[in-house]
Specification:
The complex is a heterodimer of chains A (about 650) and B (about 190). By secondary structure, chain A is mostly beta strands. Chain B is globular and about 40 Å long. By secondary structure, chain B is an alpha/beta fold. Chain B has helices at about 1-10, 15-30, 40-55, 85-90, 125-135, 170-175, 180-185, and strands at about 60, 70-75, 95, 100-105, 115-120, 140-145, 155-160, 165-170, 180, 190. In chain B, the strands form 2 sheets. An 8-stranded mixed β-sheet of chain B has the order 3-4-2-5-6-7-8-10, sandwiched between helices. Chain B has a two-stranded antiparallel sheet with strand order 1-9. In chain B, strand 5, helix 5 (about 125-135) and strand 6 form a beta-alpha-beta unit. Chain B contains 7 helices and 10 strands. The chains are: A mainly beta (about 650), B alpha/beta (about 190). The interface between A and B is large, with 48 and 48 residues.
Amino acid sequence: MIAPCILLIAGVTLLPRCAYAQAPDNAFRVDTLKRLSLEELMNVEVTSVSKRPEKLKAAASAIQVITQEDIRQSGATSVPEALRLAPNLQVAQVNASQWAISARGFSNVLANKLLVLIDGRVVYTPMYAGVFWDVQNLVLEDIDRIEVISGPGGTLWGANAVNGVINIITKNSKDTQGLFAEAAVGSKLRGLGSLRYGGKLAKNLTYRVYGTAFKRGSTIYHPDSVETQDDWTIAQGGVRLDWAATEGDAVTFQTNLYNDRPNPDGNNPIVARGTNALARWAHSTSDKSNLQLQAYVDHTWRDFRNGFTEKLNTYDVEGQHRFRLGQRQEVIYGLGFRYMDHDVNNLELFAFEPARKSLYLFNVFLQDEIALVPERLRLTLGIKIEHNAYTAFQYQPNARLNWTPAPTQTVWAAVSRAVRNPARIDREFFLYLAPQLPFIAGSNFQSEEVLAYELGWRIQPQEGLSVSLATFYNVYDNIRSVEPGPAPLGIPITFGNGVKGHTHGAELSATYQLNGWWRLRGGYTYLEKNLKVKENSADANQGSAESNDPSHQVLLQSMMKLPARIELGTIFRYVGELPKPKVSEYVGLDIRLAWKLDQRIELNLVGQNLVKSSHTEFIPSSLVAKDIERSVYAKVVCRF
Amino acid sequence: MSFLRIGKYLKTGRLKINTWLILFAGLLSFGALAPPQVEPSKEYQVKAVFLYNFTQFIEWPPEAFAQPDAPLVIGILGPDPFGKYLDETVQGEKINGHPLVVQRFHTLGEITHCQILFVSTDEKNRWKQIFEFAKTKHVLTVGDVANFSKQGGMIRFFPEENKIRIRINLTSVKAADLKVSSKLLRLAEIVEP
């Protein structure tokens, strides 16, 4: 008797939102919109949902986009956690503050085949050509979207875009007006607070100022579950100014500074500080032509607290011009120059020689997009020529073909070559057993190369559903190897280019807006690697040192807007076994429950990694495995 | 509302199938099985909610209302682009003791009591009279046609990058003795006359 009553009540209360479900363009529910603040209301996209995806549909590469809404409804609290939402990325947490992030394999704490940009600023250290993820922090609410391209970034992106590009784009300050405040506390996220205010200085001149800080608790040792003391705190602040000078001119200026205390080894916290500033001018004379100029300065400093410090000053200027050529061609060309002053304070037995090095990178690129058959078949040809301090000229050409048999379908194919230029660690790193007795010594390391063949298909079988499949076959050569020194001792060891091989795989992803209140997205990624040692090499690791990747990975994110102003978000992840060092497969489950009291205040309760009490995601070369524990946090968000 | 809809299914004799489908859908939280309904476009849904929001961010002089508990009327002059959505948005809402009410007008002459007037596209030729009327009767005029705010309309919706923005003609607003909150001003573009 009671059961049918409950069914009936459930049916009745759920009826109003069902009623909108099949409306022609996934209409909104009244209370969904009414609970939005004015600012949020202005950010609702009203023309067909597929405006941006339409652009994606046409793109001839494996691109995935994580939107602000996906991030907000995921309960992610850091940039790496938000990156877990890209089905085409491998994201593994190593300890409280370190992550191994890559695409299409070669994942490692020192992963070096991914190019990462935040608002057009390249964030990497030439020390190892990778990213210190612990200082890539943002107020997640201010992110507009994260574009993740797996596969060679091709012509338009720079060096290191061998296996992929992560492009994090924050909102225009015009879209972050008013006050935003968030405060969170939990079992692992010990505390997080952010405050942002956006205002208007003059007509068409807007700004935002923000400050954010958090403290995260330690991971535990595997398998004995003892606390590791690797807790992490950071404080960061910044300003962004946007000036829509005329209808065709937009000027952006932004600056950030941070003070970071990660403690990955759990003995003495590292001190990392940085400041950066960027200015950009975009000028469009018509919809047929636009010009963009950008310059930035980035200063980072890191004290490892054992005497070793790293100081890096990066200066970068670049420009690009896009224009229509005749009826069928769209040309884009550009040039850029980057100067990096890298300075380390060496230890007696651990040294980069010379300690200080000036590195420069000069590049020019040209791309032509030709409509072979208007609206149907497009051919894109491009080349990027780079000159770097170590291996002089490098050529990165690519050709892409894009066939659109129907407005809802695109088939694309691409062939591209990309390189990973030497980093300081490849050429100038020395590790001594005793003074004058090197165990590892510098070498004449050359650029790593990939020739990538890609085939992809994107389809929108019905309104609200889009499916994408990208397949690839990558041929690598000159991958880093560890070469033993001369007999009898076999030292010093040097880095060589002794590994080659191929990888192949597929990335299947989909987003499905079932109705006005329920959205699903997810994907499956498959990767197979086959690396071997070249004949002239004696690689000490038989080609396996550079990466530790799962063959299978699954992601499913569900976002529901329920009645009574409640949101329910669920993320399910499966990551297959890592071979060497072996890490067991695991299943991750995050659940976010949020309740909007009114337009201003939102309460969140989030559980992360709920399946097991703890699990390992990655074992670094130190072979000390640390486990990520199940955790919960509560968060209050205010928007005024 | 929900009960009304069930009543509708009863009449059409589809009750059994539909209720079960709906119950099932409810259980699965799977809305796609529900019956179709005609809805206004997303654009006008968002604009309807903006109109509702304006009631909270605009201050009317006391003489704009006959009594302290008189309704706050959101009027639509000319063809109605909102469908039922505007009614649903304001249903049961009150602002400072004034219940919100939606009224539809064919001509300016029909309007007796009105605080917000959405001027539809068709009224372009009568802007002058409308704006003059609005000024004396303390009516907030809202429109979405080009030049609406430049010609003396108070708030204009305009599209930008798939989103809806608003433009305010402060001179007209002040002339009608209305006050705009700073929050709304900060988010809007201000038009110089």
